[in-house]
Write a structure and sequence with these properties.
Number of helices: 11
Strand order of the largest sheet: 2-1-3-4-5-6
Largest sheet: 6 strands, parallel
Radius of gyration: 19 Å
CATH class of the largest domain: Alpha Beta
Shape: globular
Structural class: alpha/beta
CATH topology of the largest domain: Rossmann fold
Number of strands: 6
Order of helices and strands: HHHHHHEHEHEHEHEHE
Distance between the termini: 26 Å
CATH architecture of the largest domain: 3-Layer(aba) Sandwich
Number of domains: 2
Strand content: 5-15%
């Protein structure tokens, strides 16, 4: 016999998964779109527009040659904007562009992402609150912003705090808002220490509730990010994000184990 808690967990997880995946194109649709347009080429030209500081051209590419030709906004966000930002990050890490260039490119991507958000269908609210932000010292907020938009469109009430959130302010916000999940992002490897310290502080102040989700490129350096950081879950990418949040918000806090996408350690 299924307990009421287990039934709720399954319902929320299934609903959130279905809500997000319904906003994504079907495999047949993606294959058809790839026959009509080359999203890799669109991404390359988007990067060129970013590096040239041409916000209008970047927006035109996405709106006219992407969405205007039938590509779902969610697909453009993941396969063009997200991929473009990774390329921009690589160029910066290789010292091929300056910090100012990287900031300019990211600002353009944020403008375009806002337009895509407006065009994306939103699912009914799930009455679950997610507090999302970058840890103290982390100034790269675009990956977290994209992930927050994905959760928002899947029906979650998302409070996105942006970059470099002071730990004390985060603690105060959690006390005030009482979120169902806290999601923390770190992009740069040197912010792993900040991420680890933030998780430890939240555990010290709040115990096992609310569940803590971690993500960001910095976590890729760890073999088992959730376990090593003391978090409840690790989102490897935005496709997996909704599913794990659905499981975390539906489990009673005392039973919340540390879960990693793709399996439970």
């Amino acid at each position: 016999m299924i307990s009421e808690g287990a039934a709720l967990e399954r319902e929320v997880s299934q609903n959130s998964d279905q809500a997000f995946r319904s906003s994504l194109p079907r495999a047949s649709t993606v294959q058809h779109l790839e026959g009509l347009m080359d999203l890799d080429d669109l991404c390359a030209r988007f990067v060129q527009a970013q590096l040239a500081g041409d916000r209008r051209e970047a927006l035109r590419l996405v709106m006219e040659e992407g969405v205007g030709r039938g590509a779902p906004a969610s697909e453009i966000a993941l396969r063009v904007l997200q991929t473009a930002q990774r390329k921009i990050g690589e160029l910066w890490q290789d010292n091929r562009i300056s910090v100012a260039d990287e900031h300019l490119a990211t600002a353009i991507a944020q403008v375009v992402l806002a337009h895509l958000y407006r065009l994306s269908p939103a699912s009914p609210l799930l009455d679950k609150l997610v507090l999302f932000g970058c840890v103290e010292g982390e100034h790269h907020e675009f990956p977290a912003r994209l992930a927050a938009d994905v959760l928002d469109l899947a029906g979650y009430d998302v409070r996105f705090l942006g970059a470099d959130v002071p730990t004390e302010s985060l603690v105060s916000m959690i006390r005030r808002e009482r979120p169902d999940v806290v999601a923390l992002s770190a992009t740069m490897s040197f912010n792993l220490r900040s991420l680890r310290m933030t998780v430890a502080r939240l555990r010290s102040d709040f115990g096992e509730a609310p569940p803590i989700l971690v993500g960001g490129a910095a976590c890729d350096m760890l073999a088992d990010p959730a376990q090593e950081l003391g978090a409840d879950g690790f989102a490897r990418d935005t496709h997996d994000l909704v599913g794990i949040v659905g499981r975390l918000v539906s489990r009673p806090a005392p039973l919340a184990g540390r879960e990693v996408l793709g399996g439970i350690p």
